[in-house]
Amino acid sequence: MTDAPPPVWQVRSAYLPLLFLTLVLPWGAFALIMMTQVLGFVEPLFYFYLVMAVGVFLIAVRLIREKQSPGLFRAASALAVVSAVPAIAFVGWVMAHHG
Description:
Layout: H1 15-36, H2 42-64, H3 70-98
Helix pairs in contact: 1-2, 1-3, 2-3
């Protein structure tokens, strides 16, 4: 009899890459902004980053309390996807206006 691995949402280490990406991806947008010198986007990106950091903090607190759930894993996944939006949107904006 083999033991089946637990679902991914029950593995605490599965959350770490998602939370890491959530904190790192907005910095990719910041790097793009600095390379193109379109500094008007820096302030909104800063506030976006603060919102993402609060989301990561709330998910981390929930994980520390040992309350993993499928919904929490979906929230962490969604947060990682949303954190990529500024970089993707900025690349689209640059391509539309400069290229």
